[in-house]
Amino acid sequence: MSISPISGRRILFAGGCGFIGSHLIDALLQRSDVEQIICVDNLWTGLEDNVRHVTDPRFSVVTCDIEKFQCEDRFDEVYHFASPASPPWYMSDPYRTMSANIGGAMRMLDLLAPDGKFCFASTSEVYGDPLVSPQPESYRGSVDCTGPRSSYDESKRATEALLFEMRRTRGTDIRVVRLFNVFGPRTRPDDGRAVSNFITQALAGRPLTIYGDGLQSRSWGYIDDIVEGLARYFWRDKIDYPGPLNIGNDREVSVIDVARYVSQVMGGCPIQHEAPVPQDPTNRCPDLTLARDLLPGWECKVDYEEGVRRTIDWFREETGRPAPRITLVS
Amino acid sequence: MSISPISGRRILFAGGCGFIGSHLIDALLQRSDVEQIICVDNLWTGLEDNVRHVTDPRFSVVTCDIEKFQCEDRFDEVYHFASPASPPWYMSDPYRTMSANIGGAMRMLDLLAPDGKFCFASTSEVYGDPLVSPQPESYRGSVDCTGPRSSYDESKRATEALLFEMRRTRGTDIRVVRLFNVFGPRTRPDDGRAVSNFITQALAGRPLTIYGDGLQSRSWGYIDDIVEGLARYFWRDKIDYPGPLNIGNDREVSVIDVARYVSQVMGGCPIQHEAPVPQDPTNRCPDLTLARDLLPGWECKVDYEEGVRRTIDWFREETGRPAPRITLVS
């Protein structure tokens, strides 16, 4: 009598060529129980460069909209990270944004094995322009469902709704995280959000652009810390809590302070103000009570100053640009 | 030289076999500029009986999910009324509810002529369990996007988002109404909401069931008034306001008062209380400032007492049941 080998986990990852997705794939590939990862990405905002370093034979990329992905297989774990996350990108094609999120989730539900696990990257944008701070997961949010950010915010809310209802009606095993602002290496230079904007502007010798007065606050989570939180939550089997779970840094810093810091370490760049982005939230800060309870010991260890310096280093390597004026301060 | 006749309007109506949809189709067929109405309905909650009286050759029914409807034509007006609206129905199949609303809207956008008009029946449920009363259209709502009502609430919110974003990015002509509680003839006997529940229970000689204490309030709009408001808003060409527009009755009445009234006119039925429905909103009342401004002279003329009596008459005719114990009070 021979004992059949236990077959490994088959994973479907939508949006794996994106900034956060590609880092989470690096972490997934460190798991020895993973047999296969199929990454589906339409390369709208994702970049093949983000996974070019992966040589692991268990990993493959299919260039396709996740909502149209055809496959006979069923997967033990699905990760839904397929969405643009930066306002200029999702505002440019809201139909596609909503299709990727909601249609993508519907398709992935169909591709999930009966006892499979569905992991979804939701967002702090479900809180809209919050009227309470910090935001606990129980806060119902303040989103204008007719506004210019609604294609993103409402498709994330609707996808959460779909998943929680699949859990209620079908018993689907789900894990839903709400990610606050994340930054770090592999952000697109043209991503359009604050940290990467400031760094690419500084590297190009241009003024740093702030939309509005810059007093709007965000909580800046460095990618390594965020991925550690995701891995710990998504991969543990013994958690009975399906989410939603805030994942982020609860140190709230204003956009103008980030600009000033980038300016300082890049040798003094001028800062210029432009018209505010419509319905830009005034504040955003996670209540991490639940995360600390579920993931003991986890926290964002890289402060934003250190994270900004690491991101500058990465952008500089990527652009191959000498930076004689840069003065690193620690 | 001959002058081509002006061809009439081609209309696609999703959910036209439903309670509200079928009444609006009756109104549409009174328009002489309408050349064709294709009604697409999967008969999940709609009933063919609701349109059986229609003999107009311009009207036809296709039994199909709207999100899967295949058609080469493009339509001058589309009406998206395809969704279950009663909690026990939409809670029983949230995937299908969300697919009908959001997938249906995406499909109908594809089928809309370039200069066509998209009319959407949204809902007061986008306000969730509101913290302000009455609710103006600018109120962002208090919806738990992970809760048991979320498949309906969030798919209506997401569909609004999609349509407003199509207007912003593509200039699509949209009209979005938020309907408050509507009642009247052609409600399903097993619809599951208060007025029809009470009437069918009373006709069957059973106690009237109230979920919770019955102090939760609703604004009860009689179908004829609601359809008049819809027709005036949807069909006027000179309105530059795409919505959202509250349509309803702003007389707020508690559920228990409705039960007592039904009991009174039906000759005295006992009322029994059952456990509250999860996340049942405590109150709901439209701020009609905008509707009164846009549709001068329009208001809900049929008070709920009169509407309830008309609805009782209709149910009695439908069931063919003699009702010796009924005492109509005016």
UniProtKB/TrEMBL annotation, chains A, B:
Gene3D superfamilies: NAD(P)-binding Rossmann-like Domain. One of its GO terms (cellular component) is cytoplasm. Coiled coil: none annotated. It comes from the Bacteria. Pfam families: Epimerase. Its cofactor is NAD(+). One of its GO terms (biological process) is D-xylose metabolic process. Keywords: Decarboxylase, Glycoprotein, Golgi apparatus, Isomerase, Lyase, Membrane, NAD, Signal-anchor, Transmembrane, Transmembrane helix. Its main location: Golgi. InterPro entries: Epimerase_deHydtase (IPR001509), NAD(P)-bd_dom_sf (IPR036291), UXS-like (IPR044516). GO terms for molecular function: NAD+ binding; UDP-glucose 4-epimerase activity; UDP-glucuronate decarboxylase activity. Its EC number is 4.1.1.35, 5.1.3.2. It is a single-pass type II membrane protein. Transmembrane segments: none annotated. It is found in: Golgi apparatus membrane; Golgi apparatus, Golgi stack membrane. Residues 11-248 form the NAD-dependent epimerase/dehydratase domain. SUPFAM superfamilies: NAD(P)-binding Rossmann-fold domains. This is UDP-glucose 4-epimerase/UDP-glucuronate decarboxylase. It comes from Novosphingobium marinum.
